[in-house]
Amino acid sequence: MNTSILLLILALIGIGSYLLGSRRAVVLSGGRPSSMHSRAGYHGSYAVVWAVLPAAFILCAWLVVSPLLVTSAVRGNFPEDIRAQSEAQQSLTYGMVTSIARGLQRLTPEETAQVEADTAAVRPLLASKGVAIAGDPERFMVDAAKTLNAMTSTSRIAMIATVLLVALGGAAYALRAIAPRFRARNQVEKVILAALLVASSIAILTTIGIVLSMLTEAIQFFTMVPAHQFFFGTVWDPRFAAAGATDSSGQFGLIPLLAGTLYIGLVAMLVAVPVGLFSAIYMSEYASPRFRAVAKPLLEVLAGIPTIVYGFFALTTVGPFLRDISAQINGLATGDYANFIQAQSVITAGFVMGIMLIPYVSSLSDDIITAVPRSLRDGSLGLGATRSETIKKVIVPAALPGIVGAVLMTASRAIGETMIVVLAAGVAARLQLNPFEPMTTVTVKIVSQLTGDLEFTSPQTLVAFALGITLFAITLCLNIYALYIVRKYREQYE
Q1: Cβ distance 174 to 46 under 8 Å?
Q2: Average pLDDT estimate for 460-475
Q3: Which pLDDT score is estimated for 486?
Q4: Which residues, in sequence order, are CB contacts of 299 under 8 Å at separation 6+?
Q5: Is residue 99 pLDDT above 60, yes or no?
Q6: Quick one: which H or E segment has residue 193?
Q7: Which ranges of 335-441 would DSSP assign to H, the alpha helix?
């Protein structure tokens, strides 16, 4: 019996427990549901909880722990000379044992007897069954494979029996506990509350795990490269120095990357915020319901386009257009038709990224503006203000905290963008103010440093984790500040 069938049986036991629990509650009520503390559905749910949850927990734990114990036991029976080898060699040997064990399960009794008589027949027999092994196995490998199969089979039988017994025992216990004054609803709600707590904890623990995984590697990087050289360095050149040079780790200055990240993000926000905010004001205050029903989904389609597509758009359309138009402008002004805007530049990446961010600003701002109470609009119009004056003096100030929060959250999204920058702004780590020249960002260099053969012992690779933790800190601060602004300046309207 495989795990899928066992899960199906467990689900059937749960359904049966629910039906029996609900039925028992109805019978005990004697036709008067008010005599029971909880409804029949809660009693059925209580039976499901006891029938399914303990058994499922045991099943998950068994599936995790049992292979570890079986592997440890099989490898512990290897000969002394094998156990004296390195961990990598023992892993290769155990891999061959698992392949042999998988092949032995496909052999007929006659072929199994042939394997017992001559280990040289193992490899061709397994090859005929579609199981390839690296070389001719030794006798201890065949014996270890038999032990592995036997222990795995025994473990599976014990797991199935234990899970089914626990499920049936839990169902029986829950059914016996059902009584007129039994607080089944309270027990079920405690389980639901615990499930919600676990779900929320998963998100928190995931964030903590991400931070710790980056932080440990970043600390190792800072043991090789001083922190002040990283945070205050103005040159990014993470290459090994030539033979005989004293500095073999290159230069890891963060300033050019951080400047490029903020510069491109600023240009993107200068495009996204006005267009997105004005479109949100039009959608919420001026557009007819029919036009809004069509235009709003079309505008939000931009948020679903993959960023690599925006990168292609910048590389093949926007960049060449800006380059050619700059050449024409320069020619008309000076007679020299040399372009002053590079195809890959800050303004190209910022413009395309701003287009990508428009639906974020527009959708969030639209929801915030729409949430402003209608009474404020009517009061302003009733006092003689025009619609535009009402928007400027009443609606926008009332929605301003939410709009600021939306803008800051959109900025954190812009800072973390990668593909558009790679294709539209290049990979040159330069420190300059000309928006018509290429620059690069932190995310691009993270990808660059983690591409190719990785060896997590050199600063050239570990610097990616230092960049990652820095970027994480920046976006976290932006999000925290956005929440602070929203909470501090939020006003309650009645």
Answers
A1: yes
A2: 87
A3: 72
A4: 279, 283, 358, 359, 362, 363
A5: yes
A6: helix 184-224
A7: 346-370, 374-382, 387-390, 396-415, 419-424
